[in-house]
Design brief:
363 residues, alpha/beta, six-stranded mixed β-sheet, two-stranded parallel ribbon, 13 helices, 57% helix
Amino acid sequence: MGQPIWKGVVFSASLFLSCFFGTLVLLTPLIPVALKWPSVGRRLMDFFLWLWFVLAAAVYELFLGVKIVVHGQPAPPKHSVLILCNHRTRLDWLFLMSYELRCGTLSQYRISLKAQLKSIPGPGWAMQCAGFLFLQRDWKKDQDWISQSLKYFACMGTQPQFLLFPEGTDYCKNGLEKSRKFAEANGLPMYEWVLHPRTTGFVHFINKMKEYKTLDSVLDVTVAYPKNIVHSEAELGKGTAPQEVHFYAQNHLISEMPESTDKLEDWLRNTWREKEVALKKFYQVKGFHVNGENSAVSEEKERSVQRLLWGVVVFWAVFLTVVFYSLIFFPLFKWYCILSALTFVFIGRSYGGVDSLLYSLCD
């Protein structure tokens, strides 16, 4: 859905500035707290990160007009969940914040992403504090890093909502070509709406989360865009946004999941085969809503979400106003922001990032 380009500029600026200054002002003081009192620091960081996640959802829902539709069977409240999702665009992780806000635990939302994003001033620092998984795309290195992350969140007593894209990359021309070559080489069916999933990381997540007792459910989420598809952050920055984002969730208790590696791999492949069929039908009828099934989000819940979105927008508007006022009139605040930024640079060069420092607490 095309919006005036100034809306895209406001969207990008509001998210970047809130993330950049939110990290410097709100998260930096919590690093020593997280090192001295790890569980307390973790919860405080998660609260402020939650405020930003809600803002992100608020900006694209309220400002860019993105409608969120949820059907199916979400996981029960306060479950530790491994979320599996098809990767239709590079923005799926962002729109999944709206799903988590309505049906999950947004403060516990963790995603995996490219390691190159770790050093971006502001957003990269915030994601380090969140414990997002920065992956090298080298399984020998990533395997240990994933294990350290899962162990850390288990030590903190949290109930993580880990997002995993088993396809490994978003649905694009190059990804589709590789998926079809893989299918041809292995005698697998050709897919038109999904890519063939990779099983190694999925099995590792399952085994480690079970080992650390942080897995109650595996949540299969199918995401689809019925009216227009926006593929990248650059498009959002120009004011282009999907009119609607649809999610269909199917929850699987861990007690119902297969035990062996081979059966887990077969389960994932079968799930993606079903997802291919579901998405083909979705794009024919433009929805997952079939046989009179109601939305997974009640009207009362939706009203409370909308109130929260507006409340968080007010919070961040006041926060940024105070920040810019302080930058203009209080020189000491400028020095605080500079020292705060240098703190992240120092930790990155000396320890590999705030996430590495936090994970070391559970070695």
